[in-house]
Amino acid sequence: MNRRKVISPYFQHLTQFFIVVILGVIVLGILFFLNEFKLSSFFPIKTVRVYGVKQLDHQAILHAVQPEMEQGFFGVHIDSIRDRLSQLPWVSTSYVRRNWPDRLDIIIYEKKPLALWNDRSLISESGELFFPERIDHLDFLPRFIGPNGTQMEMIKYFHAIDRLLQPIHAKILSLELTSDLAWKLMLTNGIIFYMGQQDVLTRLHLFVKVYPKIIGDHAVDVEYIDLRYSNGVAVKWKSIKVGKNEHGKEAK
Questions:
Q1: Do residues 72 and 37 touch, judged by C-beta distance below 8 A?
Q2: Burial level of 75, CB count in 10 A (0-12/13-18/19+)?
Q3: What Rg value do the Cα atoms of the chain yield, rounded?
Q4: What is the CATH number of the domain that holds 159?
Q5: Where are the beta strands (DSSP E) in the chain?
Q6: Do residue 211 and residue 130 come from a single domain?
Q7: What's residue 250's pLDDT?
Q8: Domain CATH code at residue 103
Q9: Residue 48 lies in domain
């Protein structure tokens, strides 16, 4: 009479447990083996392609990501590369991806400078201050001069003033907010405006309306325009030329 050997469920579970453990040890051993023999040396990153760069130097980008590239195609950490790139002054955001078998693609979106800030740094369209190594080649940008912490207010006034100046086809060269919070404006045609603290935009708007009659084609003859008067403006001419305020009165 044949007897069947009965295996208890407990023993079956115990056997399965040991099999899983053994497989886990094997997998860990393989990973350790691959690590010891430097998988990166078998699958190195040979090419880095960078897109979207205008201000950044390619060598600065490669220098920033080089430590991660040494990990090879499978070992490279994408998030670490993005963190390194974010430390470069011009980088707003970046996207990184591996491209089989040996390429790394980097797409960079640079910050868009709106103006020079106190001749030492740049201010972006979002109001962020950043400090590139060189800004001398960006002298075509308007200059903002003001106390730290007033960036957003200056951006607001810059855009508002820029819109007001459109009818006279003038552009802002510099915008200054002094320590006593008074506004000073210089245009690319050389005219300086002293605008004070109160009703700045309203006074400028009224003057722009009479600009063709008072200034016209004689912008080069104007030293400055003072809008700080409650009932008119004062025009300081470089010569003896006579202008008129908004009430038709002569102003020198």
A1: no
A2: middle
A3: 33
A4: 3.40.50.11690
A5: 47-51, 91-99, 103-110, 113-117, 121-124, 129-130, 143-145, 172-177, 183-187, 192-196, 222-226, 234-237, 243-244, 250-251
A6: yes
A7: 45
A8: 3.10.20.310
A9: 43-110
Whether cis (ω within 30° of 0) applies to the bond prior to 101 is yes
As given in the structure block, the two tokens for residue 31 are 């990973």
Q: Which residue has the tokens 């470069």?
A: 88
Q: Give pLDDT < 50 ranges for the chain.
A: 1, 6, 36, 242-252
Angle, helices 78-86 vs 58-69, to 10°: value is 150
User: H-helix or E-strand containing 77?
Assistant: none
Please list the alpha-helical segments (H only) found in 93-246: 151-164, 200-214
Give residue-wise pLDDT tens across range 188-243: 999 999 999 999 999 999 999 999 999 999 999 999 999 999 888 899 998 755 44
User: Within 13 Å of residue 125, how many CA atoms lie on the same side as its CB?
Assistant: 5
- Asked if 188 and 227 touch (Cβ cutoff 8 Å), the reply is no
Q: Which of 103, 104, 220, 208 is nearest to 95 (CA)?
A: 104
Look at residue 66 and give its three-state secondary structure. Answer: helix
Is residue 88 included in any domain, yes or no? yes
Whether residue 227 sits in one domain with residue 139:
yes
CB 106 within 8 A of CB 49: yes
243 and 250 in contact (C-beta within 8 Å)? yes
pTM recorded for the entire structure: 0.75
d(CA 119, CA 139) in angstroms, rounded, equals 9
